[in-house]
Amino acid sequence: MKEVIYETLKNLHFTEYEAKAYLTLLEESPLTGYAVAKNSGVPRSRIYEVLDSLALRGDILVSPGSTPQYTPVPAKELIKNRRREAEENFELAEKSLAEFERSANDRENIWNITGSSEILDKVKECICSAKKRILLEVWGEEYEALEHELRQAAKKGVDIIIISYGEITSDFAHVYHHYMGDEITEEYGGRWIVISSDDTEVVAGIVSLGKDSRAAWTRHVGLVMPITEFIIHDLYLMEIMEKHRGLLEESFGDNLIHLRHKFSMHPDFKKHYIK
Questions:
Q1: Mean pLDDT confidence for 221-235
Q2: Is the Cβ–Cβ distance between 269 and 260 less than 8 Å?
């Protein structure tokens, strides 16, 4: 009979010695450590290590004194505790595995977002989840909607770097003012937003068309890496223009107009965003 119970207790994560000590205490208690070793067959050299493990786990109780006495938690309470722990572990496993699975899917997918408010809501989520760095290209209109979340992120120690199209004033972020925000709005017929959060997820798209605004959100490394680098290269250009504007405009025209003509998406250099 005892051998069957030993195996049952092992299934509840008892070692062989722990099972023998616990069962001995169920038969008779309280007992000293010496008595538990004698009655259970657990070596005296190991008995206190075994009893300490049982007590730490809450399977037995210890009465302090010059010679400690040990008594078991009743069998029904032991089973109740184990059942509760198992249910908690299953719930945790279910939640964590689901989150991992969802995260794994997110890393492979590109999600479409429609509507300016929906896009901004997703950007806010990226801001709130950031732990290290946020890179953001934004116009003043959208910045106002995001300022609270950005400020809270900064308070958590997140480094926030903004390329602003138009005037943006911030006492918590590094702000680079793009030298031709109005011209870009005219040329492209709308305002875009691009954010990279911790270099692991991005949102990018047109945000000034109301319900017809379109953006993409992804953790796919094939897009996160180049979009993040796109923002970084804009930062390079901001630094270079600040220090060498005269020389660059001498070669490429005011606000680098010749380069923009050369590489524009549209031959006539003017457009309205096609929905």
A1: 92
A2: yes
